TrEMBL record:
One of its GO terms (molecular function) is beta-glucosidase activity. Substrate binds at Q21, H122, N166, Y296, W396, E403, W404. Its EC number is 3.2.1.21. This is Beta-glucosidase. NCBIfam families: BGL. SUPFAM superfamilies: (Trans)glycosidases. It catalyses: Hydrolysis of terminal, non-reducing beta-D-glucosyl residues with release of beta-D-glucose. Keywords: Carbohydrate metabolism, Cellulose degradation, Glycosidase, Hydrolase, Polysaccharide degradation. GO terms for cellular component: cytosol. The active site is at E167 (proton donor), E355 (nucleophile). It comes from the Bacteria. Belongs to the glycosyl hydrolase 1 family. One of its GO terms (biological process) is cellulose catabolic process.
Amino acid sequence: MIDRRGLPAGFSWGASTAAYQIEGAVDEDGRGRSVWDVFCERPGAVKNGDSGRIACDHYHRYVEDVALMRELGLDGYRFSIAWPRIQPTGRGSVNPAGLDFYDRLVDALLAAGITPLPTLFHWDLPQALEEDGGWLARDTAYRFAEYAALVADRLGDRVPAWITLNEPVVHTVFGYAFGIHAPGRALMLDALPAGHHQLLGHALAASELRSRGREVLIANNLTPVWPASVSDPDRAAADAYDALHNRLFLDPLLLGRYPDLSAYGVSADLAGSVHPGDLELIADAGRLDGLGVNYYNPTRIAAPTDPSLPFTEVEIDGVPRTHFGWPVVPDGLRQILLTLRARYGSALPPITITESGCSTDDTLDDRFRIDYLAGHLDALAEAIAQGVDVRGYYTWSLIDNFEWAEGMSQRFGLVHVDFETQRRTPKASYAWYRDLIAAHRERRGR
C-alpha cells in the first residue's frame, strides 16, 4: 500500500452533505415545495415512510454542525443549496429568508477556517417546475441559470468555486427513467432529454458564475465498468453501460459530443432535445475548472437478458459489502481516475473526490468505515503517484442523514445522529479522519 504521505501538500480535506438530506424545516421561512417533499408522500416510495421534513434539523443546528467541522479540521465543506428555499416556485421573486440562511452558513464556515463548496442542484427541484415538465422541459435550464445568478450575487463574494449539478446521471436514471427517486417518473430511455437539459442548465449557470469571476465544477457518479467475461457480447454490453453511466455527461463537456448510444436505439439528438448550438454551448460556456468525482463501487456487466436494455448488471463476488449491499473495491477509485486521464487527456480538468464513503450498521465503533476510507485513500494516493491531478477528498458524509428512497435506514456519517433527539455523537471514524488530517498537515508543514 502507498503511504498517504503521497498526497500533495495543498491537498484539501473535506466532507459533504446535501440540503434535503440534512436541513429539515421544509415548511419554514417561505421555502417552497420540492419534488422530494411530494415523492415522500407517495405511499411506499420511501422506506418506512420516512422523509426529509425534519431530517437532521441542520437548518436550526448549523452552528453545532460547523463546530463539528472545525474540530474535525476540515479545509472544505461541500453542501447544497435548496432551490425551493431561494425561489419557492423555481422562478421569479427571491425568498430573502432562504438566502439569509446560506449567508449565515457561509459566514460561519469562513469564521471556522473552512472553505464553502456549494452545490446548486442536488436533486430537490421546486415542485412547481416539475409540474411544468421538470428537467424534461428545456425552459428549466434557463430557470436554473436565473437561480444560479441570484445565489451567486448574494454569496459569490465569499465563495470561490461552485458545483452546478450533483450526479445528473443518477437523477436522470433513478428519477426519470426508473422512477425510484423523485420525481418518480418511469420513462426508461425517454428520460434522456432530462439529462441533456441538465447539461444545458449547467452551461447557462456556468456562464453566470464565470461572469462573476467564480470557478465552476460539476460532480458526477463514476464507476469502472468490468465485463463479466472476455466474450464479445459481454464486452459490448460493458461498453454500452459505460457510455450511459460515465460518458453521457462527460463527453459533451470535455469532447463536445455525446457518446454513441446506438446500442440503445437512441439517435445523436437524444429524441430531438439537442438543438443546434447546444453542444458548442455546453463545451464552451460549460467548460470545467474542476471535475467532481463521486465514487462508491465498480459495476460488473454482462450481455443483456432483458430485451429493453443492452446490458445486464451482475454481482461482484468475493469482496466485502457495505450495509447498503454495495461492493467495497477501493482500487476501483484508482481505476476510474486512470480511465478518465487516458480517455480525456489534456481536456481533463483537475479532479476533486466530492463523495466517497459507506453506510454501516448503527454503531459508534465503525471500524468498517475506517478501513473503507483508508483503503480508498491508499487507492487515491496510487492514482496521484501515477500522474492523475487530484486536489482534494470529501467524504460522504459529515453526519448521518436522510438517504433518499432508503429513508433513515442507511447511515453514512462520521457523526451519529439520533433522529429522535437530534443529538450528534462523533463516531470512531470521526476521530480517525481528524487525526489523519492533522498528521497530513504536520508532515506538510501547514
